[in-house]
Amino acid sequence: MATAEKYILDSITKETGLGQRLPGVGRTIHLRPSGGGYIVVSFARTSPRTLLETITDDLERLARRSDFSFKPSKRAMRWAKFYIFETYARMEGAFPRPFFVLDGEKGIIIKWVKNGYTVRLNCLPNDGDQDYIYYENGEYDIEENVTPEILQNRLNWLNQHEREPAR
Amino acid sequence: MNENLLAEPHPVLNPLTNETIVYRAAMDESWFSEDKEEVDSIAFQRREKRDPTGLTIGLHDRFYRGSLTRPIAGIVSIQVGQVRDVGRDLEPRLDVLIDHAPHGNIMGLPFAKSPTRKEAERIASLLARRARPHEIFDPPAL
After folding, report:
1. Is residue A149 in some structural domain?
2. Is A8 within a domain?
3. Scanning A46, A84, A92, B54, which has the fewest C-beta atoms within 10 Å of its C-beta?
């Protein structure tokens, strides 16, 4: 099973696809066999929404409202969630809230902006595409071969500059 | 002098003055910041399929009518001089050329794909910082 797909199943048990504990998933979902099919049982919320839930809702709302030509591909959605869940699990409270941009070609850009510093993770639409991070603060560059660790390092760079504004 | 005004229905306007404002369609609401004060750089990224000649702009803010079939989220504007400023050190330089008035293109932008991806991202970012939301359509409209 592809890592990005495994995360979706494992997130139900509050772990990411890479086996990290996933904090901030407040809802509990059980899948139970029912006459050859499955039912989904969810329990009422008793706590405020977590940042991770808010981010996930933002992303899914974006995909729902988009028409065909802008609707993110399954591949883009899967990998966007993968990067968010895995990196959130590593960073917990330090994970900054992102914005989402549709690129018009069925890809998703996950964007963080603070104090003039920008990180943009481009989740491309097609299998075989290579996602990349573009970042800038006056200087600018691209990182390819994106992993949760690379994204975490780049977000730490962003957070560090939040505390120490650019001179 | 036998001047036939109909022979040139779209007079050549180039070069545009630096003060000329041109407009571009924002295809999705995510192309604006949450507070609707800023434009995302995706609005200035040139794609191979969509923008073979250049990045489409118009001389007035309803230029896109008749060519687009889906509702758009709004209109962004930028001055021609600001485009030229961003592309001052590039080869080729950035410029705005009108081909079939009111339609024109921002010329000289690299494609947002390898091997010019980094430059394309940077130029789009610089243009987006200078651009402004001109009109927001809520809900999206044609």
Report:
1. yes
2. no
3. A46
Per the CB < 8 Å rule, is B40 touching A101? yes
Considering the entire predicted model, what is its pTM?
A: 0.83
In a domain, A37, yes or no: no
ipTM metric: 0.88
Distances (CA, A) of A82 to A5, A7, A22, A46: 8, 7, 12, 26
Give residue-wise pLDDT tens across range B16-40: 999 999 999 999 999 999 999 999 9
Residue A141 has its nearest CB partner, among B31, B42, B118, at B118
Cα–Cα distances in angstroms (integers) from residue A61 to residues A65, B92, B116, B126, in the given order: 6, 40, 32, 29
In B, minimum Cα distance to A142 occurs at B118
How far apart, in whole angstroms, are the C-alpha atoms of residue B46 and residue B55?
Answer: 6
| Domain ranges, ordered by start, for chain B | 15-141
Contact A142 B34 (CB under 8 A): no
Taking phi over 0 as left and psi of -120 to 50 as alpha, with beta for the rest, A24 belongs to left
Per-residue model confidence as pLDDT tens digits over B54-106? 999 999 998 888 788 889 999 999 999 999 999 888 888 999 999 999 999 99
CA A84 to chain B, closest CA, distance in angstroms equals: 18
